[in-house]
Design goal:
heterodimer, A: mainly beta, seven-stranded mixed sheet, four-stranded antiparallel sheet, about 0% helix, about 50% strand, globular, B: mainly beta, about 60% strand
């Protein structure tokens, strides 16, 4: 199975900060990667698919990039509601595999 | 409102069985792949299984292969996960999710665009 490694596992930032989360795949996955966010006690929600395409309704301060093995999720100006845990997921092959998550604390 | 609602979770002894259900509403259920994802207490997300539109194609994570069976009833707009030989490590919140296929630049991408609220399975 493809291993997805996220970093950092957690971070603390202030409102207005630029935040970057990385996800590395153990083998090339083209751009077949999605990002999700999850707030405590809630189901995850889709942020980005195809590594860089924003899901409908997601604020434009979120962006994704990368291809092959290295991917990045960027929040350009952190907002209080962005407190959440972020996960990457490869949809290149089976089994689908998630990164371990990055907890963003405000 | 497009919605998924899971049910069937509960407390079960090791070695026991449980059947989870996921009821879909306000979308054409029969046209989507569907997925189960779980989350152990305080842990990350783990993809468990998925199934294609007519149930003829299924995939599982290795840790549940042979113990869990994903199925669907398109007439009832429902997805199921039959779990047997349950282990303590199967304890988790189980989410069903709609597996949406996006098409961009001649490539198809899958992403889980609708999630249920989850149902809790405790094996103890």
């Amino acid at each position: 199975a493809i291993q997805m490694t996220q970093s950092p596992s957690s971070l603390s930032a202030s409102v207005g900060d630029r935040v970057t989360i990385t996800c590395r795949a153990s083998q090339g996955i083209r751009n077949e990667l999605a990002w999700y966010w999850q707030k405590p006690g809630k189901a995850p929600k889709l942020l980005i698919y195809a590594a860089s395409i924003l899901q409908s309704g997601v604020p434009s301060r979120f962006s994704g990039s990368g291809s092959g093995t290295d991917f990045t999720l960027t929040i350009s100006s952190l907002q209080p509601e962005d407190f959440a845990t972020y996960f990457c997921l490869q949809d290149y092959n089976y089994p689908r595999t998630f990164g371990q998550g990055t907890k963003v604390e405000i | 409102e497009v919605q998924l609602v899971e049910s069937g979770g509960g407390l079960v002894q090791p070695g026991g069985s449980l059947r989870l259900s996921c009821a879909a509403s306000e979308f054409t259920f029969s046209t989507y792949w569907m997925t189960w994802v779980r989350q152990a207490p305080g842990k990350g997300l783990e993809w468990v299984a998925n199934i294609n539109q007519d149930g003829s194609n299924r995939h599982y994570v290795d840790s549940v292969q042979g113990r869990f069976t994903i199925s669907r009833d398109n007439g009832r707009n429902s997805l199921y996960l039959q779990m047997s030989s349950l282990r303590a490590e199967d304890t988790a919140v189980y989410y069903c999710a709609r597996d949406h296929t996006y098409y961009n630049s001649n490539v198809y991408y899958d992403a889980f665009d609708i999630w249920g609220q989850g149902t809790t399975v405790t094996v103890s």
